Amino acid sequence: MKRIIHIFINLLLCIRISAQSEPCSIVTNELAKQKDIQCGQGLMIHELDSLAREYYRCNKYNEATPLIEQIIDNWPESRPKEDAFFYYQVLGNIYLAIGRADDAEKLYLSALSELKKNNNLQHETYRNICDALGNVYY
User: Fold this and answer.
1) What's residue 109's pLDDT?
2) Residue 82: CA count within 13 A, CB half-sphere
3) Is there a contact between 58 and 25 (Cβ–Cβ < 8 Å)?
């Protein structure tokens, strides 16, 4: 029952966020309150993703970074590893935006190496990370 209530609250929050035309700070404040309440219970990947995307959209990179790092660090083995590399790309993009080009480069190269090792050179994320890596050197 608690899980159903939790899902329902998240759904209402998502509807409110998508319908809200207020500035990012109001939306992210609401998300921060929800995050503070739920952190002790452990957020699911899709919940972390929603929070991180909203912070990223509002250019609140310092708030988005630990959420994306948590997604990467806790990626479930039951899900395809290739899907996690999208988050490597986003985190690398954030690193570039905040002036941490060396960290972005390491992250991109790590993701490319892993994708290459698993023979996923045709994976869309591989191409996107290659493009992002080019931005490091540009």
Assistant:
1) 94
2) 14
3) yes
CB 115 within 8 A of CB 133: no
The alpha carbon torsion through 71, 77, 78, 79 (nearest 10 deg) reads 50
| Dihedral angle sign, alpha carbons of residues 70, 40, 15, 5 | positive
In whole angstroms, what separates CA 96 from the centre of its chain? 15
Contact 46, 58 (CB under 8 A): no
pTM of the model: 0.68
| Sign for the pseudo-dihedral over CA of 124, 82, 14, 70 | negative
In the predicted model, residues of the chain with pLDDT beneath 70 are 1-43, 120
